[in-house]
Amino acid sequence: MNMLKSCFFYCAVLTKRNTRAHPMSSMANFSKQSMKESMSMDIDAEQNAIGGGSINEKPRFYQPNDNPIDSGGGRCNIDNTWNPSDNLSHMLHALAGIDRYPNYLSRFRQLSDIDLLEKALETRLSEVRRQRSEIVQRRAGIRQLVRRHISSEREVDVEKENCDCAELWCDHPLLSTPKTWIELRERKVLLDQAFKVAYTSTASRRNTRKAKSRKQTLSLPTVEDIINGKAQVYLDPSLLEDWMNQEMYDVYSFPLLSNEFCSLLRKTLRELSALAESDEFSHLQFGRRPIDLDTIGLGWVTDLVFHMFIQPMSLHLFAKTEKLAEEDIVDLESSSSTLDWRQGYVAGYSEDPKGYIGAQRHRLVPHTDDSEVTLNCCLGDEFEGGSVEFYGLRGTPEEGQFIGSVDRPNVGTAVIHSGRNLHAVSNVLSGDRYALIVWSRSWSHVRSSTCPCCWLNRRQDSTCICSKRWN
Ligand SMILES: O=C(O)CCC(=O)C(=O)O
Ligand SMILES: [Fe+2]
């Protein structure tokens, strides 16, 4: 596979959008909205607690790039004196200095300035420790919640039997990991077309010219190997063309998960959230925050989506824009994605999130994700409103401009976009809406050569000391 083919795929989806009736035409709404409106939405949302559209990010406001002073993501010390606690840039400079110069701190005249650095780092360290211990407790609590749920489902007392969780859910219809292609199909996890694209691409890859010329017989990787990241998936671009649609610039959609699977997932999350309201579990606030799939034993779903679809698809769609491969990449077939980290969670929305268990918000303010590539799959249920709106790529002139929205996709349909594409979810007007979100990062590649500050602020062609140019 070469760049030409990948460009061909790209052009084909573009052309398809222009020439064919859009299969999800009800989804595509390209009305324009001024940047001012989107900013005021942001400001409104800040007044709301969770349930109102806020996200797990510090309040920050979009500022057009012509502002000569870059506030570094909203933290700027006005008087500019050395203050590593309030000025993130000062702390990062000190860390870079300590990393570079053997006796960096000897240049500080006042010991009290070093004390300030120590205090700032201690504050961060205690935050790391606080979060760590909260995570340990929360994960243990959620595990207990899941065990309780399974024991009531199966009418066994798992606590008494002292069952190991892994054993307990090895044959569970949702929690157990599918191991073979047959099992994956029989359990109706994927929609037929998604299964076919993945299976056909994987099976036909065994017979590639390269393998033949090396006289190798490649065995078909098992689903278990793919989920565990032991086998790499390559998706055939000619199959992607029929399967995917370009919704707008750099945002693509495709049918992914089956109705049966989405409904089983929703049902389980609702039951867990309802159980979590009991006195024993209410401190966990489970179902009142997005639900991380790893914590409830559903990490395999995230792994499947990540390894089977996000990684190989991103090579076709985002290799260049998100710098997921070397600049001079010419052979996509022999390349592997540099995406190497994933997190999957379910976000729930309803018209009245405070009264509704398991759906945390009624909308979501414009934001970028801390991911290189994000997949967002509609899990249903019945709802009105709750469109995903896109506002341009951060770090480009389109940043903040309304580009288009994806309105009420079919259940099981996924959207894939770059994490730095500003996006929001509009008010859910009725019903409840669940979305499976998978964030993917590239620690081995882009995050090894860019500092967090440049990356989170999406500086393009950075001349920052963090870039390869300097290291
Ligand atoms: O719920 C959605 O459709 C989007 C959620 C989202 O953007 C996020 O969790 O980062
Ligand atoms: Fe997001």
From TrEMBL:
Start and end residues of each Fe2OG dioxygenase domain: 338-442
Keywords: Dioxygenase, Iron, Metal-binding, Oxidoreductase, Vitamin C
MF-aspect GO terms: dioxygenase activity; L-ascorbic acid binding; metal ion binding
InterPro entries named in the record: Oxoglu/Fe-dep_dioxygenase_dom (IPR005123), Pro_4_hyd_alph (IPR006620)
Cofactor section: L-ascorbate
Name this polypeptide is given: Fe2OG dioxygenase domain-containing protein
Species of the source: Stephanodiscus triporus
